């Protein structure tokens, strides 16, 4: 894809890349090593997404060699852009952050699936859902995460009784760093028994949670009625969080993972 690249050279954690644009465009921040992968058409970790206003500001999450990439996302025309870097303010304490349930989800490197499973690709986030919740939760969340530079695999197959939910979700988890399961009355009605769902959601790495449940139009008592231990898991709820807020929290954790990989 045709794009503009701005080499920021070595930058310190906390610096801010300020990007000016003459029209809306995709603005993404990535390390030089990930840019090489991006340019070669391989999977790359990045921060950012569609910038509708100028200037766009991207915080640099770790010390390293960073670049900013600007493109029109396949649209016609050209964009004019400029970048300057504001150094991290001296002596400032790190800001206090609200509790983010997504932080408590364990992270691991995805395992490349065998054969044609999931198209032979690995992803940041896998979203499992019932077909009834596609329009209200799954698709908007996928779009919001993609706008934040997060790669998402969304199961477009309707989850009907008789489909192997265990196999499909298991495949998604193996091929993704994070698994999101949208729990609702529709999801529970798809023929799952309590112990099957509970066993899947509580897959662990080093004893930590590897999936993030999202409760949609369902209460803690209803979840507990299907699986008492599942109700105790760290979760987000569409009643208390907007799609944008949930995407922000999940994307924040994905970015931190990218920063840790860049430092490695």
UniProtKB/TrEMBL annotation:
Domain TIR, first and last residues per copy: 121-254
Domain of life of the native organism: Bacteria
GO-annotated biological processes: signal transduction
Name of the featured protein: TIR domain-containing protein
Organism listed in the record: Rhodococcus tukisamuensis
């Amino acid at each position: 894809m045709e794009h503009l690249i701005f080499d920021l050279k070595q930058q310190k954690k906390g610096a801010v890349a300020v990007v000016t644009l003459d029209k809306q465009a995709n603005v993404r921040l990535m390390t030089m090593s990930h840019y090489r992968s991006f340019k070669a058409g391989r999977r790359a970790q990045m921060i950012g997404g569609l910038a509708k206003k100028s200037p766009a500001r991207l915080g640099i999450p770790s010390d390293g060699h960073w670049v900013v990439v600007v493109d029109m996302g396949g649209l016609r025309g050209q964009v004019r852009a400029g970048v300057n870097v504001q150094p991290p303010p001296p002596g400032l304490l790190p800001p206090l952050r609200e509790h983010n349930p997504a932080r408590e989800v364990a992270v691991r490197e995805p395992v490349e699936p065998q054969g044609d499973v999931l198209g032979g690709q690995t992803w940041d986030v896998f979203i499992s859902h019932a077909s009834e919740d596609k329009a209200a939760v799954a698709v908007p969340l996928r779009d919001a995460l993609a706008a934040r530079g997060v790669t998402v695999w969304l199961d477009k197959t309707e989850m009907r009784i008789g489909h192997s939910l265990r196999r499909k979700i298991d495949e998604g988890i193996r091929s993704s760093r994070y698994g999101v399961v949208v729990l609702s009355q529709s999801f529970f009605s798809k023929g799952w028994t309590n112990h099957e769902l509970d066993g899947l959601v509580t897959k662990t790495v080093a004893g930590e949670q590897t999936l993030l449940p999202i409760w949609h139009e369902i209460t803690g008592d209803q979840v507990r009625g299907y699986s008492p231990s599942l109700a105790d898991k760290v979760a987000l709820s569409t009643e208390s969080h907007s799609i944008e807020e949930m995407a922000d929290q999940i994307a924040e954790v994905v970015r931190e993972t990218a920063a840790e990989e860049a430092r490695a």
